[in-house]
Amino acid sequence: MKRKILFCVLLSMICLAAKSQSGTNSPYSQYGLGILSDQALGYSRGMGGLSLGVRGSSMANMLNPASYSAADSLTMIFDLGLSGQITNFEENGTKVNANNADFEYAVALFRIMPKMGLSAGVMPYTNIGYSYSQTERIGTELTTTKVNKGSGGVHQAYVGLGWNFYKGLSLGANLSYLWGTYDRSISTTNNDAYINTMLKTYSATINSYKLDLGLQWQFDLKNKDQIVLGMTYGHGHKLGADPMVKTTYTNSQTGVTQDTTFTANNSLSIPESYGMGFVWKRTGKFMLGVDYTLQKWGDCEYPDVNSTTGEYEKRSGLLCDRSKVIVGGEWIPNAYTGKFLERIHYRMGVSYATPYIKVNGQDGPKEYSVSMGFGIPMIKSRSMFNLSAQWVHSSAKDLITENMFRINVGLTFSEGWFMKWKVQ
């Protein structure tokens, strides 16, 4: 019965993830493919997202598929995550707050043969969601209002294998299906009945793939300590999407509309990415690590309207390379005691990331974050409740400043599914 309940919960969460999009209210999501999703799972978010060198038999780590080889032979792992956030936006002394609560991911992991594990899951890849307006006075009586709106994003469903092929060396790969749409619009209206109104809509539909490779090397030290080195590579390629821009002018006196549509064929891409991670750990006691990732967005072209011809076409220089550094770790007072408080995992991490978007020709906001969290073991079970709090600050000169406080809630089911009774 327990297995059936867990299986139904997992399927329900996957269906919800497939239909929903992890939300954002950031106006920066109007650029590029949107806000990049934090794909770290619940146990990792309390450590700032530390992942590339992390491996263990009781966790799924899709950010380095080589970690799947550590899956326990008798255990099925389900990892489900939710988040809620409050964001404060500030520009020129004006402050606005926005709230979101969203389903984040559903991931499963199990061993399929000795030294080989399989993982599958679904989560967002990018998020788009914003709505704001600007009103400008021209002369003494004429006012013009511009409304910007956007929604959508890209989802990711993956399946991956990890194989421990030689002593402490493991290889892994994730093959993902990317799908989604985005719709962005700019409408201009005014208080003069003799001036035309304009609506400009940007849209695209994405159906493509994503390939990520991982490597981990684990070796033992004295005092039962271990060092894990991790490396990842993500294949960059065009997404095969044909973004469109449609401009509609409406005659305010007659109500007659005139449409103009341009298409930028095959002009969306995902970048090549590289990652390196280092973890020093003592099983059941502590873990410390560092991650570095580089995404080569600067090599990707992106569609834009040609100010001279009015056509929608691919352009370079609209995006820039993104780097991210994470330092984090966890401490467990005593994982093998019967005392509940001493078995709690205490986590902390910090991170710094450069932007991948440009705003009006300048680099977008840099991101700083601090996180703290707890891994709370469930009574009479190997499952764990993961809770973390994260503060994220994004800012750039003369641009909107964002301060976000996020609560991440994750539940890792770690249950024995493959054990058999032996009767003598």
Describe what you observe in this structure:
With 424 residues, the chain is mainly β. Helices cover 5% and strands 59% of the residues. The protein contains two helices and 23 strands. The strands form four sheets. A 14-stranded antiparallel beta barrel has the order 2-3-4-5-6-7-8-13-14-17-18-21-22-23. A two-stranded antiparallel ribbon has the order 9-12. The longest helix is centred in the N-terminal third of the chain and has 18 residues, at 2-19.
List key phrases describing it.
59% strand, mainly beta, 14-stranded antiparallel barrel, elongated
Gist of the model:
The protein has 424 residues and is mostly beta strands. Helices cover 5% and strands 59% of the residues. The strands form four sheets. A 14-stranded antiparallel beta barrel has the order 2-3-4-5-6-7-8-13-14-17-18-21-22-23. A two-stranded antiparallel sheet has the order 9-12.
Architecture blueprint of SSEs:
Elements: H1 2-19, E1 35-36, H2 42-45, E2 75-91, E3 94-113, E4 116-138, E5 142-166, E6 169-190, E7 197-220, E8 225-234, E9 237-238, E10 244-250, E11 257-263, E12 269-270, E13 273-282, E14 286-295, E15 302-305, E16 312-315, E17 322-331, E18 345-353, E19 358-359, E20 362-363, E21 366-377, E22 384-395, E23 401-416
Antiparallel strand pairs: 1-4, 2-3, 2-23, 3-4, 4-5, 5-6, 6-7, 7-8, 7-10, 8-13, 9-12, 10-11, 13-14, 14-17, 15-16, 17-18, 18-21, 19-20, 21-22, 22-23
